[in-house]
């Protein structure tokens, strides 16, 4: 289905004027300080909290945080959990925080844990996929990244020589992908938009270069008691990609500049929750994200 977008000329990529017009239309809809920083502050008794950078957009600054195991042990494998790469994907942010609040302590004997709960706080506040420069952070994890959101976490991991063995990146696929973000991207690129079928349920995106099918399967099995797994569409696909096993598709993480390509972790996956399903609710979506991380760590603990 083609959709017009109110900014730009069809068939012509956006220039600076169109990007500024898009940015001017955005407005704050929720509060990063209250929703995220406040919860991070409550974690300081159990974990080390570090600021790894700050985003400055106009008059607003956003400090960026990682939450780390207090007793870091060089002999243990390391797990990285990232959320809010796409700020509008709510359960990614809240799932990362709830994992820290509830589940993380159960794995400290086996792993060093580091969590970046909200990589894109401006996107969180304005409910956006892009950053203010109309750049998609989840296509920008590459050298000389055009997105500060990506460059700052990449620099932090490099500076501290953190090389995760497990990386779980928490995402959602929402109805607004079709109603807003895919039409906006087509307008930005000067192309024709074709919406995809939104999967009804939870699914995973594996890295095609590090597929680890049994790892992906273990996560799906852990999530199943919490929420339903997305079935393939009539073409055997999820969001246009072939389903390679129940609830799993794959992309080239590093080639596409995805967050799951951020590290060389052996075990890596991107979660996708569908919060707009009639068969779920916000609490269940967050619980599914936590279950996915738990399933990933329980499997990896046997293999590493």
Automatic annotation (TrEMBL):
GO-annotated biological processes: proteolysis
Required co-factors: Zn(2+)
Keywords of this entry: Hydrolase, Metal-binding, Zinc
UniProt family annotation: Belongs to the peptidase M14 family.
Protein's name in the database: Peptidase
Domain Peptidase M14: 28-304
Pfam families per the UniProt record, alphabetical: AstE_AspA_cat
SUPFAM superfamilies: Zn-dependent exopeptidases
GO molecular function, one term: hydrolase activity, acting on ester bonds
